[in-house]
Write a structure and sequence with these properties.
The chain is α/β, with parallel strands linked by helices. Helices cover 27% and strands 26% of the residues. It has a 7-stranded mixed sheet, sandwiched between helices. The relative contact order is 0.16.
Length: 194
């Protein structure tokens, strides 16, 4: 498992035209069925690239928790939310394997380009499971484990098979693996309460 973390000094890359071509947020989010009024966490929110579009989908009765271990990212997301007048975004700093949320609070959690950075994926997945409601959904988007023009080195990437295996072993039912592009995959899983 990679111990590489994204350098916050490079945060401009997180909302660039190039990234919007590779990973258009609205196109990616259409695969996950986020509903108005839900409580959703964008875990590893970066600069709010997904947080802002999700907050629009949730409407004024929904809540988006923008979580990141880097305080500078949390502050940037909050600044962008305020600039757009988004009152349903709560930006919070998290810690490795510790999410600053009550148990059973979320309808869904989103992790984009985060899984390959996890030091202890099993512990992290257990923590996500804790904060999800019964039948809560987890959405993961990450790089396919193959060489591509963009993204982390291949040896830092985690295959879809490895991700789904870890999810199944740690309290989730995998509903769908989505081929988002030549370089990216998505996984949709539901909290298993059995």
């Amino acid at each position: 498992m990679s111990k590489h973390k994204f350098d916050p000094k490079r945060m401009a890359k997180l909302d660039s035209l190039e990234r919007r071509k590779i990973l258009p947020p609205e196109k990616v989010l259409q695969h996950f069925g986020i509903q108005e009024g839900w409580s959703v966490a964008d875990i590893g929110c970066g600069v709010g690239y997904f947080s802002l579009p999700i907050s629009s989908m949730l409407g004024e009765n929904g809540t988006l928790y923008a979580l990141d271990i880097e305080d500078v990212m949390v502050q940037e997301t909050q600044k962008r939310a305020e600039a757009k007048g988004r009152k349903n975004i709560i930006s919070l700093q998290s810690k490795e394997n510790i999410l600053p949320l009550d148990s059973d609070i979320l309808d869904a959690a989103l992790m984009v380009f985060l899984y390959h950075e996890l030091k202890q994926p099993e512990l992290f997945i257990e923590e996500v499971l804790r904060v999800l409601k019964v039948d809560g959904l987890l959405y993961i988007v990450d790089w396919k484990k193959k060489k591509t023009d963009k993204g982390p080195p291949v040896d830092h990437r985690i295959s879809e098979e490895e991700v789904t295996s870890t999810l199944k072993q740690n309290g989730f039912i995998v509903e769908e693996v989505i081929d988002l592009s030549d370089a990216l995959y998505g996984v949709r899983a539901i909290k298993n309460v059995e």
